[in-house]
Specification:
The structure holds two protein chains of two kinds. By secondary structure, chain A is an alpha/beta fold. Chain A has a domain of 243 residues: Alpha-Beta Barrel (TIM Barrel). Helix content of chain A is 47%, strand content 12%. Chain A is built from 15 helices and ten strands. Chain A has a four-stranded parallel β-sheet with strand order 6-7-8-9. Chain A is globular, with a radius of gyration of 19 Å. Chain B is α/β, with parallel strands linked by helices. Chain B has two domains: 79 residues, Methyltransferase, Methionine Synthase (B12-binding Domains), Chain A, domain 1, CATH 1.10.1240; 119 residues, Cobalamin-binding domain (Rossmann fold). In chain B, strands 2-1-3-4-5 form a five-stranded parallel β-sheet, sandwiched between helices. In chain B, helix 5 links the parallel strand 1 and strand 2. In chain B, helix 1 packs across helix 4, helix 2 packs parallel to helix 4 and helix 6 packs parallel to helix 7. Classes of the chains: A alpha/beta, B alpha/beta. At the A-B interface, strand 4, helix 7 and helix 13 of A face helix 4 and helix 8 of B.
């Protein structure tokens, strides 16, 4: 790697080269996602941001961070229950925190008849995202790849039924889980149709719910529905897919079998939970052998190192990680999960700017 | 333990817990009690099944769905045996633990798994619930004279509340108060920094707390 610090490629060229394993002028910078809490807007609460249907506050938060860090990828998101809330799950708001579900909409099989497929233009807090995508695409669409996804069919199902109950159903009445999943998949497809219409180029999925399943349950209850969702994304014309593997008992199992599961129908970034840089590098090599358009990213802990570490520690970890994982492409510099709103800006600076300074990657 | 591998009602009860066989557990327990097996022995068998499932989860041999049906089966079984235990109590002294999910976080699955594991391991568990302010942990610890305080959080902003809770507990109840932490966003590094004990899962919590108590 050569520290020239001169950018010769556009984000589009850089990302395309990265997926192909070709030389890039620097590492691809993934999104910096704490925008949902309205960073840079100190008088605005979390609820103000995520419930504001015009998406203005969310857009302002994204704009603040984008203008500071000029990442190659921008993702637009609010909270991981937004799809389920649009379908009728009730949530609770906390001070300075994202909302969480408190009452699930599907309590019994009959409830499935009452829930509707959400329209991202009008239902729940989805319009915030829909309108924000439009604003961000209009302003930054020629400067960065803009994506927006959902938590994916299984995680939506877990958020309309409840994770404990859907786990019980998996063992005792799997037919009901499949019924819930059909509704959840339809909801996800409808939502990304809206995101595509608003101008998003990439999409994604993944939250913590599916990484509590063992391999066989993942194969039965996650894979078929996620493949349907992916096929829809491909048909709509999305150019890439980011698949988040959140921590959970089976996170490593999902990553190890990702390609076998057939979840790489689009150029895919598998980001999130890897044990360490060596583990991620090993997975990258495995993916490269059987799925040429799969990239990796993650490792540095959002809620740990980036939040509570010092800028010096973060810079050192970033440098080691990028030097180890970026050569040969197929690596995106991204934390392993969403960043908490409390991350000090100097830590974020260390996280992004250190990576940006690392030059040509072959 | 005699019921672990051999034939007989106790081994069937244990298998029913491990396999989450809620349909058979009531009849099995009633048969065991009719045959004169002591309620305490039946309860210990149920508990052994739950602890085995916790260990399987820890070793990635079982996952949440398997654990959920196992725990639900245990609940059914325990509801039959526990009333009988109360009438034959030996007034044993139990270690007391306060557990809860910290303020700003309402995730409860992990906490509930830990709670059940402690209960079946002979602890007196006082669950203060979810979204718990630091003061509530302290108040409950004083009220019951707790031996251990357990704080859980799954979300990153919960770490701030977790730090506040640990700080307040230390200030109000002394530096030697035994505190355990767990949940996705917690880590060994954080535990080292705070001077508390990190538990990677429910089974690990039992092992660590048993070790802490011996100290």
């Amino acid at each position: 790697m050569n520290n020239t610090n001169i950018e010769e490629m556009t984000p589009y060229e850089r990302v395309a080269a990265m997926y192909c394993g070709e030389e890039t002028d620097r590492v691809v910078l993934g999104w910096v996602r704490e925008v949902e809490t309205g960073i840079g807007l100190p008088s605005v609460t979390v609820a103000d941001v995520v419930r504001e249907k015009s998406g203005y506050h969310l857009y302002k938060g994204i704009k603040t961070l984008y203008e500071r860090y000029r990442t190659d990828l921008i993702t637009i998101g609010t909270y991981t229950t937004v799809e389920a809330v649009a379908m009728g799950t009730k949530d609770k708001y906390f001070v300075d925190q994202l909302p969480a579900p408190i009452e699930y909409v599907v309590k019994c099989p009959d409830d499935l008849e009452k829930i509707k497929v959400p329209d991202p233009r009008s239902d729940g807090d989805l319009p915030c995202l829909y309108n924000c995508i439009k604003r961000v695409v209009q302003e930054f669409g020629n400067k960065a790849l803009i994506g927006c996804g959902t938590v994916g069919p299984f995680s939506v199902a877990a958020r309309i039924r409840g994770l404990w109950d859907i786990s019980y159903d998996i063992m005792k009445r799997p037919w009901f889980v499949h019924d819930v999943l059909k509704h959840a998949t339809e909801a996800c497809e409808s939502i990304i149709e809206g995101w595509h219409e608003a101008g998003a180029m990439g999409t994604g999925s993944g939250a913590g719910s599916e990484t509590v399943l063992g391999k066989e349950h993942f194969r039965e209850f996650v894979v078929p529905y996620e493949r349907m969702y992916l096929k829809k994304a491909k048909k709509l014309g999305f150019s890439s897919y980011s698949r988040h593997i959140c921590s959970g008992t089976s996170a490593s199992i999902v990553i190890n079998n990702f390609v076998e599961f057939g979840l790489n129908l689009l150029p895919t970034l598998v980001w999130g939970y890897y044990e360490d840089a060596d583990d991620m590098n090993q997975k990258k090599k495995i993916f490269s052998e059987s799925a040429p358009m799969v990239a990796v990213g993650g490792v540095i802990r959002a809620a740990d190192t980036i939040t509570f570490g010092s800028p010096a520690i973060i810079s050192r970890e970033v440098e080691e990680l990028v030097k180890k994982c970026a050569p040969g492409g197929k690596y995106v510099h991204i934390p392993e999960c969403s960043l908490p709103p409390t991350v000090p800006l100097e830590n974020l600076d260390a996280y992004v700017i250190t990576a940006r300074k690392i030059g040509r990657i072959t | 333990m005699p019921f672990e591998n051999g034939p007989g009602l106790l081994s069937e009860i244990r298998a029913a817990i491990i396999n989450g066989n809620s349909a058979s557990i009531v009849a099995l327990i009633n048969n065991a009690l009719k045959e004169g097996i002591a309620p305490k022995e039946v309860f210990d068998t149920l508990a052994s099944g739950v602890i085995t499932m916790g260990e399987k989860l820890s070793n990635k041999e079982a996952f949440l769905p398997e654990l959920v049906v196992s725990f639900e089966t245990f609940k059914i079984g325990a509801s039959i045996v526990e009333p009988k235990l109360k009438t034959t109590s030996f007034n044993e002294i139990k270690r007391k633990i306060v557990i809860g999910t910290v303020e700003g976080d309402i995730h409860n699955i992990g906490k509930n798994l830990v709670k059940t594991m402690f209960e079946v391991s002979g602890f007196e568990v006082h669950d203060v619930g979810v979204d718990v302010p630091p003061q509530k942990f302290v108040d409950k610890a004083f009220e019951i004279d707790a031996d251990i305080i357990g704080c859980s959080t799954l979300v990153s902003p919960g770490l701030i509340a977790l730090r506040k809770t640990v700080e307040l507990v230390r200030r109000m109840r002394g530096e030697n108060t035994k505190i355990i932490i767990g949940g996705y966003t917690t880590s060994q590094a954080l535990a080292n920094e705070l001077g508390v004990t990190y538990c990677k899962d429910a089974y690990d919590a039992i092992l660590k707390v048993n070790s802490l108590i011996k100290k």
